[in-house]
Design goal:
The complex is a heterodimer of chains A (292) and B (237). Chain A has 292 residues and is mainly α. Chain A is built from eleven helices and no strands. Chain A has one domain: ABC transporter involved in vitamin B12 uptake, BtuC. In chain A, helix 2 crosses helix 8, helix 6 packs across helix 8 and helix 10 crosses helix 11. Classes of the chains: A mainly alpha (292), B alpha/beta (237). Chains A and B meet through helix 6 and helix 7 of A and helix 2 and helix 3 of B.
């Protein structure tokens, strides 16, 4: 039992990383109805910007805020420059551009900051939380930040007019134009917000996994798994899904002998497949009912 | 009465195929105008052209200003509410959210809740369904929702594309009664495109008859309805 509780707690603390990323994934899915494969790399690049600022002796929280702002603007810029011209192109064109962006950003980061592993400071410190050796202060802080972001997003999408317009623009662009919503700017705004969220995720994750251009590859996969598990249309579900993936991964690694630590990553893929087969809308995703 | 909408020499094509061959028509402020015609005559295209959804040439004057070439969202922001064929409801959102979306470009946010209540007075059935996903409503209810959503814009002009489409005759009758009432009470100007000519002529002041992209006849609705040829080809008696 002791072992079980330990593993669940450890799972929740790694799950916080996935939850953060899953939130960014859901954000962009809400805005553009696609999964952005370059999202992890964009988050990594943002984190490098923060690292650079901190290296230049900018205080942590100032660097944090600056990075979020730069990422927000950068996300909008990417949408305007790269995706606006192909807005009517088929899904596959978008996927190809996502993959291109992925490798361009990955290589650019490697070119600018090279591939050596860098340490990234934590605003919460690395001391154990409440004297427990299972969860560190940083991981506790990460859980808290993720939940706060979730609340902010929930409020934004449920109670503000811009949030409602963004949801409408994603669900039904043609009708949205007819009620006067500037759909293309809603998409750009979605990109900006997703990139800003991603940058926060990156800055929280970097102290745990260390900063290098490939740091987000497996995390994005877990983030996708969390988002799919919780439901791509539900920010709350995605966060819960992220935590669940962390716990599932840890428990499977402990209790299923063949999995061990080497086969942890495929667990994320198994989760994606199982969810898509048995509950495509995810645990909390809104099931779309329609008359036929 | 002044002219709310004036369309001059409107031409539109889909690729190589010309659909509209220089339409001229106009709409009185506060009036109901109907565009009649068979399948493929260009009725829907005309509405889409007004809303900047198809490439076209000519002149479309709305309150005296040319709106041809403006984007769909800008035309909507001028107060043109288009209810497309198939209704264009946000099926994944609730009835109430749909109504709020109708008013999304309005700046007088403090009046919106009042207007939503007013819509629920006009359409009591929507009130019962306010938290239901719009996609689960019946066809008639969805059409009511589409009309209510359009009214939430406080439109200067409503464009209705086949409001009777796919509805049971009784529902159609009820809907046209509502439209007549709305025209009277809300002073909403309407341009109605219909295949059901008898119904449309019943509520319209002016009528235009469209045949393969050109207007072949126009005049007061009563006069058009009484015309021998129209009666034989469109009213069927």
């Amino acid at each position: 039992m002791e072992l079980f509780i330990q593993q669940v707690l450890a799972g929740i603390s790694t799950g916080a990383i996935y939850a953060c990323m899953a939130l960014a994934v859901v954000m962009i899915y809400q805005a553009i109805d696609h999964l952005n494969f370059a999202q992890g790399e964009m988050a990594m690049f943002s984190t490098f910007i923060a690292w650079q600022l901190i290296e230049k002796c900018v205080p942590y929280w100032l660097a944090f805020v600056l990075t979020v702002i730069i990422s927000f603007i950068g996300g909008i810029a990417i949408e305007r420059i790269v995706f606006k011209p192909i807005e009517n192109a088929p899904v596959l064109s978008h996927v190809v551009i996502f993959i291109a962006l992925y490798s361009v950003i990955n290589s650019a980061a490697g070119f600018i900051w090279d591939f050596t592993v860098k340490s990234f400071p934590s605003p919460f410190g690395s001391a154990p939380l409440f004297g427990s050796s299972l969860i560190s202060a940083h991981q506790g802080g990460m859980v808290a930040v993720t939940l706060v972001l979730l609340l902010l997003l929930y409020g934004f999408f449920s109670f503000t007019r811009v949030g409602l317009a963004m949801r409408a623009a994603a669900a039904n662009p043609a009708s949205s134009r007819l009620v006067g919503i500037r759909v293309s700017w809603m998409v750009a705004l979605g990109w900006g917000m997703a990139t800003a969220l991603g940058s926060i995720a990156g800055m929280l994750i970097a102290p745990v996994v260390f900063l290098e251009p490939n740091m987000m590859i497996s995390i994005l996969l877990y983030g996708f798994a969390g988002a799919v598990l919780g439901g791509l249309t539900s920010p709350g579900g995605a966060v819960l899904g992220g935590f669940a993936v962390g716990v599932i991964e840890n428990l499977a690694g402990t209790y299923i002998p063949v999995v061990g630590s080497e086969l942890k990553l495929p667990i994320a893929l198994v989760v994606i497949v199982v969810v898509l087969v048995f509950k495509p809308a995810g645990l909390f995703g809104r099931v779309v009912v329609s008359r036929v | 009465m002044s002219k709310l909408l004036e369309v001059k020499n409107l031409r539109a094509s889909y690729g190589q195929v010309r659909v509209l061959h220089g339409l001229n028509f106009s709409l009185e402020e506060g009036g109901v105008t109907t565009l009649l015609g068979a399948n493929g005559a260009g009725k829907t295209t005309t509405l889409r052209a007004i809303c900047g959804m198809v490439k076209c040439s000519g002149e479309i004057l709305f309150e005296g200003k040319n709106i041809l070439g403006k984007s769909t969202e800008d035309v909507a922001r001028l107060g043109v509410a288009h209810i497309p064929e198939g209704r264009g409801t946000f099926t994944r959102m609730t009835v109430e959210e749909n109504l709020q979306l109708g008013a999304i470009s309005r700046r007088d946010t403090q009046n919106i809740p009042k207007d939503i209540d007013k819509m629920f007075d006009h359409f009591p059935r929507l009130k019962q369904r306010r938290t239901q996903q719009a996609g689960t409503l019946s066809g008639g209810e969805q059409q009511m929702l589409a009309i209510a959503r359009a009214l939430m814009l406080r439109p200067r002009l409503m464009l209705l594309d086949e409001p009777s489409f796919g509805l049971a005759p009784l529902v159609v009758k009820e809907m046209f009664e509502i439209l007549t009432a709305l025209n009277r009470e809300e002073k909403a100007s309407m341009l109605i495109v219909e295949q059901n000519a008898a119904l449309a002529l019943g509520i319209a002041d002016e009528a235009y008859l469209l045949e393969t992209g050109s207007i072949v006849m126009s005049g007061p609705a009563k006069q058009i309805g009484a015309d021998e040829n129209v009666r034989r080809s469109y009213l069927g008696y």
